[in-house]
Amino acid sequence: MATDAVTGPVPELDPAAVERWRRGGGELVELLTLARERLGGVAAVRIGPRPTVLVTAPEAVQHVLARHPDRYVKRSHRARLLIGDGVLAATGDAWKRQRRLLQSQFTGTGMRRYEQRIAGAARAAAERWAGYARTGEGFDVGEEMRRFALDTIWRALTGHPLDAGRARELTAVAAVVAALPSLPADEVEARDSVAADLARIDTVARHAVAAARDGAAGPDGPGLLQVLVDASAAYPEYTDRLLRDELVTLLVAGHETTATTLTWLYLLLDRHPAAREEALAAGGEGSPERREALQALVSETLRLYPSAWILPRHATEADTLGGHTVAAGTDVLVCPYLTHRDPELWPDPERFDPRRFTAAGGRPARQGAYLPFGIGPRACLGTQFALRESTALLEQLLPRHVPVFTSVPAGAVYGLTVRPDGPAPATLAPAG
Fold it and tell me: Vertex 374, ends 367 and 8: CA angle to 5°?
């Protein structure tokens, strides 16, 4: 057990405040923000019949996700209808096996294998933007970011660039992700609601797995899917269904969050053009200083809009958290979105300031204060991949073009990710 001095149960938000929120039809994030402001970094909110514990204090975040993941477990992923038993949703021994197989692919030599594929996708995006600039054609920045990120992960998975036909079919992935928060609670009804999109995704996955089984490597050589197919010879649990689930999981995790992050970044630069100029003034093109400055843009965007804005867990045993008792069976919500906007950790937290990540002392040193990809054993496998593809695209686009938005989204949608609540149509102006 933790050694915190126990002060009693986790303080609970006044039920009257919860009822006012419920009657007003507010977003969950509004209720959680209120709980943190009134009660601090470990607070209880009665969303359902039992209190749910909200965790935003860095030490408590570290306790739940990194120090004691065996006490605070992941039970079911919100996207299970889409990703099945892929590594994001898997638990127990199955998760350990699946993660162990994938982990080496996203670190060290594994990452070097993807450099040319990431660069190829970034060049393809730059060519499209050069075409928009020549013709004056308008486009949606969010859709462009999704196209780039999907092309990148498809190259990593298969060794092939994403062709137009598969790109059209894989719009079904974004459609299901967007629909998830509003699907019926009943699993059969939920699946029926998105059956056509799931069928399109299954068809693409089936063809990709069959091609990998036939050894049909792409121009950049075999992809990550080949690693999974080869594993099926040694591990019988890697059935065609699990291969499909793992492929779709990597497609979702490998493009949805990156596309959303890059869209937010361009919207933020539209409001803060000086940040773009500062990044481009840091060293020459391709220099380590330039790359560090570009990564700071991405890191600050992820602070405001983390890839996983909320991380649900379930307490398997009684524990002491932040000096409070947590009963076995309690649902726990770790909320990076609110940790990143805590003024005690991040001065002027609503301000977009990439210098937090380049200046000495610009970001808090406390573990658990910054976790856009989670922390602990279930932290995102593709963190380095996502950061590298984001900076690779910015290296190509930022010095050459400035999007001029004809309208911008009014707010955010808090679903699987925090995404803009509408399109971001723009034309391109030359960089000054």
Answer: 65
H or E stretch at 331:
strand 331-334
Q: 106 pLDDT band (50/70/90 cuts)?
A: confident
pLDDT score at 1:
39
Residue 3 counted as domain residue: no
Strand partners, 427: 404
Query: Could you tell me which of 295, 294, 268, 264 has the C-alpha nearest to residue 279?
Result: 294
3-class DSSP state of 144: helix
CA angle, 229 then 231 then 237, to 5°? 95
In the structure encoding, which two tokens stand for residue 335, read together? 């909320």
Query: 312-333, pLDDT tens digit by residue?
Result: 999 999 999 999 999 999 999 9
What is the number of residues in the chain?
432
Count structural domains, the chain: 1
Pairwise CA distance, residues 290 & 398, whole Å: 11
Residue at 375: amino acid letter: I
pLDDT digits (tens, 9 = 90+) for 45-64: 999 889 999 999 999 999 99
C-alpha Rg value of the chain to the nearest Å = 22
CA 373 centroid distance within chain: 7
Q: Which domain holds residue 222?
A: 15-430
Residue 320 lies in a domain: yes
Q: How far is CA 192 from CA 242, 256, 308, 415, in A?
A: 21, 23, 27, 20
Q: Are 91 and 80 in contact (CB under 8 A)?
A: no
Whole-angstrom Cα distance, residue 143 to residue 147?
A: 6
SS3 label, residue 276: helix
- Six token digits for residue 411: 């707010």
Instruction: Evaluate whether residue 27 is within a structural domain.
Output: yes
Contacts of 292 (CB under 8 A, 6+ apart): 282, 358
Burial 395-407 (b: 16+ CB within 10 A, else e): bbbbeebbbebee
Name residue 141's amino acid: V
Three-state SS for 241?
helix
With 0.85 as the threshold, say if the pTM is over it.
yes
CATH number of residue 63's parent domain: 1.10.630.10
For residue 3, is pLDDT > 60? Answer: no
Question: With 0-12 CB in 10 A as exposed, 13-18 as middle and 19+ as buried, what is 385?
Answer: buried
Which residue in this structure is represented by tokens 């036939």?
214
Query: Would residue 306 count as lying in a domain?
Result: yes
